[in-house]
Amino acid sequence: MADIEVIPVGGYNEFGRNMTVVRYGDKAVIIDMGINLDRILIHEDAVFESLSPNDLQDMGAIPDDSVMGDVDAEVVAIVLSHGHLDHIGAVEKLAAKYGCPIIGTPFTMKLVENSLNDDFGPDIDLPNEMVAMNTGGRRQLKGPLELEFVHMTHSIVQTAMPVIHTPEGAVVYACDFKMDNFPVIGSKPDYERLEELGMEGVRALVCESTNAHEETKTPSETIARDLLKDHMLGLRDERSGLVITTFSSHTQRLKSIIEFADELDRKVMLMGRSLHNYTTTAEEVGLLNLPDNVEVWKYGREINKQLKRVMNEGKEDYLLCVTGHQGEENALLTRMAKDETPWTFEQDDQVIFSARTIPNPSNEAQRYRLEERLKMKGARIIKGAHVSGHASREDHRELFSMLEPDHIFPAHGDIEHQSQLADLAEHHGWRLGEEVHIMRNGQRKTLPR
Ligand SMILES: [Zn+2]
User: Fold this and answer.
1) Interval 161-176: pLDDT, tens
2) Pairing label, strands 350-354, 159-166
3) ipTM score here?
4) Which of 22, 207, 350, 356 is positioned for an S-S bond with 174, CB 3.0–4.6 A?
5) Full residue range of the structural domain in which residue 76 is found
6) In sequence order, what E strands does 110-240 have?
7) Distance of CA 2 from the midpoint of ligand 1 (Å)
8) What is the Å distance from ligand 1's center to 269 Cα?
């Protein structure tokens, strides 16, 4: 029998650029190939599309997969857990050289395919076979390995918890996830299957540690939906302008916004490149059904034309859903606040932020500037309609007890975050350095027999 090896490639020294390799004998599977958006934003003049993989690796923007040169195994699949950019964004830069199939859920694969043919850069033609597999599905890979997708919930639809089955037991990859029993789209996680896996025998669990320090259970998306309902339907002023900004990739959140806009009898305009990309992709795979009162606009010129139309016809008939919840300089909301579009903010216009500020100094400064600009124009700012997409400590505890893995690899974030998850594991009897492994990018760990 061969050994199982876990190789953390990216996302173990930082948040972002996630990539993990599972090797069994002379076959290996890559799970996720993400970017670290922060690193790209810091290099302001950098254009992702035109930079080489080496340059991007030097910047820390994509995983440094040089360790794979020392791994004596054939990569038989690239598995994508979900469609967030920190999990799929580097596919276009790194996947070609492995030449193996890329496997993800239909929504995730559509996002990858659309990004390869985006009209903002040259078309990219990858040699890899593109395979869509629904959660609940299994697929035999080359050699003795088998891939299974367990249905999971997260802040993006069609998130899978990939399981690599080897003759020596399973490796489960829980990045990213939350345990949402009342998701707005789709069903709750497949707990039954997770318990079965635990009984069959899990050799290793690779588990995100993003919110492992939060002593709670992460609230369901239904809570964010109720807050949105309260914010959108609860204000007495029904005549003013109404602008909402949220994560473009959060189809569940957008569904709620669209439904409450209908109750307000307002037409919805989804505006901005990323909002267009994610919502049209969700529609293509049948996850979102945009009603007639919703229009989607992608390009600056057409957005300006529509904003002029709204100003002429009357703001009270519309709800604008726009990009820019972090106050990004070139995003639509910032440009609207700076009077760079035909839209004018007036006294008592409402701006709803359905997103938290991602905690780093540049985001916080941008958001501060945006909010101050909005306030100077008399806009009312309503924040708080948001819940996290990441598991908290009590969710982790439940995952541990369902799977009862032999080994645990905390992933995502720096040592501080990973040690929080390690601490929880220790509390339940796993020993640090024996069965719990805090790893750095590029290190390797063969599981003892
Ligand atoms: Zn994610």
Assistant:
1) 999 999 999 999 999 9
2) unpaired
3) 0.99
4) 207
5) 4-217+389-446
6) 130-132, 138-140, 146-152, 159-166, 169-174, 202-208
7) 32
8) 26
